[in-house]
Amino acid sequence: MKRTPDLTLVTAADQNYFWGLYLLAASVERGALGNRLVIFHTGLDADSERLLTQFRRVELRKFAEKESPLGLHCRKAEAMLQAEGEYLAWLDSDCLVIGDVNEWIIPGNGEMQARLRKPEETIADLGRFYQPHEPRGGLPRIILERWRDDVGERATPRLDAMVPSNVFVLHSKYKPFLEHWDRQMAKVLTPGIGTLDFDQPAYFLTDESVLNSLLAFADFAPEVAEYRLALERDRHVAHFMGSPKPWVRWLPRNLYCLPFTHELILWLRAQGMELPPLPRSLDPAKRSRAVIEAQVMARWQRLRSLPGKVWKRARTATTWPRRGLGGSPIRGALTP
User: Fold this and answer.
1) Contact 201, 143 (CB under 8 A)
2) Whether this model's pTM surpasses 0.85
3) Which of 34, 48, 145, 274 pairs as cysteine with 7 (C-beta 3.0–4.6 A)?
């Protein structure tokens, strides 16, 4: 009989993300995923704690109070280091487990699974940092060079793409790697920085950038296996990236999760679980309204972006190429 590995799911949030924690905990319970869900927090109120601990997999742990210049998003390694289990899975508190993903949650190589970003995603996120004539799609050279110097171990990178830090699974033998991640964030990130740092190209994505610098250049780091938690639409881990979140209003790109979320609410009622007062966007009786609001928002965003697109095209069509010192045009330069 095949042994079932001991798996601990880990997340963290404050009171502002209660609904994210509640939906995540409910979806983990419905999908019977893992052995436990450890929620680290910085001060949930008593009602929130009661509602979360009714799920049998949930363990609440309050973060130790400490003087730290870094935000909650930079305490992922700290949380995972305190969790027990053969495998540790990090899920951001705005994730949702859709269906049964048990057969795919353990990394195929026994080390780590995370989603490698596609070249077009790398260009969208980091395109501003490419040097002139540098091939696009991989990690910008200026970022790789800074990572190599800051890590100070390997000379060549293992990866030429980044993995998001919102969902990944790691074998516990790599806890020393997590310790390195924690130390490195304290070393290289700007104190008081939010989730993005526009002044540091190498650490533009803050905690995520540091994680990837170590995956690329640390001597002791896991090999990243194929990401299997997005193989099927009705069995995967969803991430509600962006704002607003679904418990406020649905973004068009997240609408595909709305039926499952409403099914989850109905399942909770059938199980006799206690629900907090539902926001309108999560009320199954108001599904049509939630869809209409998301569609109206999408149209408004498209209309609002039109003037900028027209202006950008006009500038590109009417400006001359810049010229170098010798008077010859500089290739690829379309604006003055």
Assistant:
1) yes
2) yes
3) 34
